[in-house]
Amino acid sequence: MYRYIIKRLLLVIPTLVGAAALVFLLMRLIPGDICVVRLGSGGGTFDERAVQACHAQLGLDRPIFLQFVDFVWGFFRGDFGISMWSGKPVLYEIAARFPVSLEIAIMAVVIANLIAIPLGTISALKQNSPIDLAIRVFSIAGLATPSFWLGILFILAILDFSQAAFGSPWMPPIDYVPIWQDPLRNLSMVIFPALTVGYRTSAVTMRMTRSAMLEVLREDYIRTARAKGLVEHIIINRHALKNALLPVVTLMGIEAAFLIGGLVVTEQVFNLNGIGRLFVQSVQNQDYTMTQALVMLVVAAFVLTNTVVDLVYAWLDPRIRYG
Amino acid sequence: MHIRAGLMAAALAAAVASTVPATADNPKSGGTLTYMIPADAPPSLDGRRETTFATVHSAAPFYSVLVRVDPNNPASTTDFVCDLCTAMPQPTDDGKTYTFKIRDHVKFHDGSPLAAADVAASWNAIIHPPEGVTSARESYFVMLDKVEAPDPATVVFRLKFATNAFLPALADPFAWIYKKEILDKDPHWYEKNILGSGPFRFAGLETGQSIKGARNPDYYVEGLPYLDGFTAIYADKQAVRVDAIRADRGAMEFRGLPPSSRDQLVKELGDKIVVQESDWNCVNLVTPNHKKKPFDDARVRRALTLAVDNWHGAPALAKIANVRTVGGIVFPGSPLAATKEELQTIAGFWPDIEKSRTEAKRLLKEAGAEGLKFELMNRNVDQPYKYVATWLIDEWSKVGLQVTQRVLPTGPFFEGLRNGTFDVTVDFNCQAVVNPLLDVGKFLPRSVYTENYGNYDDQKEIDLYQSLLHETDAAKQRALMREFEKYVLDTEAHMFMTPWWYRIIPYRSYVKGWKISPSHYLNQDLATIWLDK
Amino acid sequence: MTIVAPNSRAISAIIDDAPEIRRSILLRAWIFCRRQPLGTFGMLIVVITAIAGLSAEWIAPYNPTANDFAAMTEAPSWAHWLGTDQFGRDQLSRIIFGARTALIVGFSCAIVASVAGMVLGVGSAYFGGRLDLYLQGVLDVVMAFPLIIMALAVVSIFGTGVHNVIVAITIPLIPRCARVLRASALAIREVPYIDAARACGFGHNRIILRHMVPNVMAPFLIMLTAFVGQAILAEASLSYLGLGVQEPVPAWGLMLQGGAEEYASTAPWIAIFPGLAIALTVFGFSLFGDALRDALDPKLRDR
Fold first, then answer.
1. Which of A129, A140, A213, A265 best probes binding to C when mutated, by most C CB atoms within 10 angstroms?
2. How far is B60 from chain C (nearest CA, A)?
């Protein structure tokens, strides 16, 4: 078992290097040149010499292998380099946008769990009743609806509703202020994207809670507790819920990583200056350093989470042996 | 604000009041203008390096230029006025020398005075950038030899040859005047920092989010700017900008919104919205790849342009896209542009579309390209690229051509253009100041103009252009332009036109003092804007 | 209990031919419908979508790519049941043809991804050891890799078009399936009869195909149905970002891009109907998948 843990942890490093190679290669396979995009997208004329000067300044005229080594070595040192688009350090650009995405992600997860766990429990307790059906429809709708479409409809609804109710249309602010500076303005901006992203996460958690609860409720010890005459809500809260929540908790870890995908489109819809939007921009601008840094961060987070989850599974379920 | 000749300097205050545009109210001071920039973030705020409007919209309020398009009459293509100079000079020395006098009492935002040396240094950095520094518009100024500052109040521009393409080029909205001392010490300083002499001082930048400016109390024009400050928010998504104007989260944006947004805002906000519209100095072109058969055959290229009904297509497109005016290679508002009668003699503009299409089919048959199938490369931008392309494909189907569209994101699109990996492509020509003589350079072969993607060579065309550029008599120049136009669009059909873009700016009616121009790069220093609230 | 000497034929007789209650297919379907009203509803949606996709040419009233500049952004009416978009194209026809694109993308991605996932997941679990370790590492990387880069790379290098979108979407789905099936396969692998089979000298192929695969069938089918929905949603997101199918191919995700947002206030039907189509279709597949899982999972049956 311990040998497995060591091997798994050691595997993280070549995994990251492999991911680095993959993103490095893919970005350079995409046709396009950031210098040309920078100079040419205005539509006017620009000089070939300007393009060469730009290449030299960004280090794009160096041999490919050197660029790769620089990148990987920099990653392990924590030095992600300079953004090719803006000329500012990559970490500076990411740090400027990180709070927005983090706040939305946290709010989305909190909202999701506040909705999902009670609803999932009720759904399991009243299996196949109309309430169960309604909750299941609600949760599947959350999985089925494209989140950006939901966002578009949301904004539309807010504008039309406020126009009808107050005479003049209201929309959340389009520039971000940190929560300690102006909590009301901050929350009014963040709540809607958080709801949009959170709805989808809550759907997954709701279904998992329901199925986990259903399994637990069939266990013998619950039957015994009922036979003993314990009050129902004590059975649920003290015995059932705790055991049911185990797979749910591990699921939350994985779902948090999937949130990033939802963030990417939601930030576009709500004009939020977050990591998701930065990511889309840097891919479209072919800003190699920024894209590589962002992908590496995402991959690293994901790989570490999965490693931890794998180890937790192995520890929990003694049936699973790894070779 | 523009300044008339030195004699009127004494009546400056009166001049300012009398030339405030439109509403005849008295301008009120104060307030902060919040507007939106339709981009995610500009690569940098250095006017020499960048060509994107996002840089201008972000940083123009912080800087001064030497001369510019008249902010009171920005639609004029021949009216240039002074910003830092005192009077527009007449060229001497057979049109090869321009001598400007610089205003005094101009200060940079750090308090130091601005002198002719700063102007000369900034311009020399544009036309002859030092090693390692990028100047995107170096090739605009082929006619310029050098810039000198013989004394602290005089700047002299020496040209290699006389041409009336010089003044419009000089009015380049990116030609911000930087401080010589800083340029000497660190030529890259301005890539990451801002220090100018414009109506607003830099007050903060949140990367990807917003940029702010505060009133410059030492601005050299008395009484300006009216605003206390401005906040520019980066908002790439059009729906967000329209909703923001609707909900008054921002007063306006300075690029242009499509007709549907204008209609929507007008319907919903009534008199709280004002709309200004103008022809735009941008156009989409169609460029066949002359290296790909059968587009090396001029008959096939002519057929492509003859098939398209510009006259009826333009009004229909104008309802959904940012296009409107049918025009030739010259911007429709310019004196060098073709009249309707002159246009109608050129292929693609014939008044009788049936006749035109019949001719197109005949040409295709003759060239053995009937029922030709090809791919149209396009850029992944809605307005108006994709709308124009969808319309073109429809038009071409009417002469039996089967066209599919290949839409690419910006990077791969440019790569495709430069490497010639396309059959036919949607191309574009977007210039800041209306300068027809330089703007039509786009149609010249790549050996002369690097942004031409047609992959052809044509010495006759180059010769025609050279005589056009050097001609100083207005009537003769116009005749030469007509000849050039017919050669490019009809005889050889190297590239052809689609309707010119149309700029629509709806904005909240409390914003006053801004006039639309044919270019989204112009008139962006916000000095004359005031808020009526 | 007497100890019987291991006889391979006898053991395979026990393992392979476990007795089963045989019911007629129709009766089982009827029981399924009665027990799972939601699942039936879901199946209905799937069937309708499939019919729409297969017979699009016959049932669509207009040509989905024909521009009609005289009829731009028209509200739903008798001439155009779901209205027209900004080019005057009939929405109903585009949605019907879009069903075809959605199903092609959905099924292709789902089938390829789940089969590949099964091969990788079961193989990885069965063989274990270093193969398992390295494969998990590679799958981790691919799974963590953001869909948008993969999509942009595939689209930029190989061009847009349905087949390239399918490739772009399938690649990130494979490791997800592999992971889930690997977990199920791992649990089975330790069950004694697998060891017994190995002891009898059965080949790898036989054990995997006849013993492990049938036992991961349930999660396999569930992943398959789940993937169809996810693939359709992924295509919608990619098209929204401009990286999916391109004009003028009718595809629901594409219909939601650009024009839909631009006209959201003045012509809401352009944005509402394609989104509704996506949501309903994925909804249907999810309900169907749910019902399938409930039917296949013995622990949740018979209550």
1. A140
2. 29
Lowest mean pLDDT among B93-97, B231-235, B326-330, B404-408: B404-408
Between chain A and chain B, the number of residue pairs with CB atoms below 8 A apart is 170
| pLDDT of the residue at A244 | 66
For chain C, list the contacting chains (3+ Cβ pairs, <8 Å).
Answer: A, B
What pLDDT score was predicted for residue A246? 62
Gap between the Cα atoms of B497 and B506, Å rounded: 27
pLDDT tens for B23-32 read 456 888 989 9
CA distance A96 to chain B (A): 7
From A309-318, B11-20, B365-374, C204-213, the region with the lowest mean pLDDT: B11-20
**Residue carrying structure tokens 């050299």:** B220
Q: Which amino acid belongs to residue C140?
A: D
- Contact (CB<8Å) A50/B136: yes
Tell me which residue has tokens 């019907």. C96
Task: Give the C-alpha separation, B409 to B370, whole Å.
Answer: 31
Average pLDDT over residues B365-380: 90
Distance from CA of A127 to the nearest CA of B (A): 43
Nearest Cα of chain A lies from the Cα of B4 at a distance, in angstroms, of 31
Q: What is the mean pLDDT of residues A275-286?
A: 84
Q: What percent of chain C has pLDDT over 90?
A: 7
CA distance A246 to A254: 13
Bigger pLDDT: A250 vs B131 = B131
Indicate the Cα dihedral angle B437, B443, B449, B450, nearest 10°. Answer: 140
pLDDT tens-digit series, residues C191-215: 777 777 777 777 777 777 777 777 7
Residues linked to residue B511 through DSSP beta bridges, in sequence order: B531
Q: How many angstroms separate the CA of residue B451 from the nearest CA in chain A? A: 6
A285 chain-B contacts, CB cut-off 8 A: 410-411
With an 8 Å Cβ cutoff, is C159 touching chain B?
yes
Q: Would you call C141 and A22 a contact, using CB atoms and an 8 Å cutoff?
A: yes
pLDDT single digits (tens) A118-141: 888 888 888 878 888 889 888 888
Q: Indicate which of B209, B230, B252, B521 best probes the interface with A, i.e. most A CBs within 10 Å of its own CB.
A: B209
Distance CA A185, CA A267 (A): 17
Report the amino acid identity of residue B344: Q
Contact predicate B28/B226, CB 8 Å:
yes
Under a CB-based contact definition with an 8 Å cutoff, are residues B420 and B290 in contact? no
Q: Which residue of B has its CA nearest to C266?
A: B264
Q: Report how far residue B203's alpha carbon sits from residue C17's, in angstroms, rounded to the nearest whole number.
A: 81
* Nearest residue of chain A to residue C144 (CA atoms): A299
pTM: 0.84
Residue of A nearest to B272 (CA): A168
Cα separation, B122 vs B135, in Å, equals: 11
- Check whether C21 has a pLDDT greater than 60: no
Q: What is the maximum span of chain C, computed from C-alpha positions, in angstroms?
A: 88
Instruction: State the ipTM, two decimals.
Output: 0.82
Residue A284 near residue A27 (C-beta atoms within 8 A): no
Closest by Cβ to A46, choosing from B51, B53, B409: B51
- Residue A29: pLDDT band with limits 50, 70, 90: confident
**Could you report the per-residue pLDDT of B238-275, keeping only the tens digit for each?**
888 998 999 999 999 999 999 988 998 998 888 999 99
Cα separation values, B230 from A18, B296, B517, Å: 47, 53, 21
List strands edge to edge, sheet with B496-508.
Answer: B402-408, B373-379, B424-430, B273-288, B496-508
Whether C69 and chain B come into contact, CB under 8 Å, resolves to: yes
CB contact (8 A) between residue A303 and residue C140: yes
* CB-based contact C264 A152, cutoff 8 Å: yes
Locus of tokens 């949140």:
B206
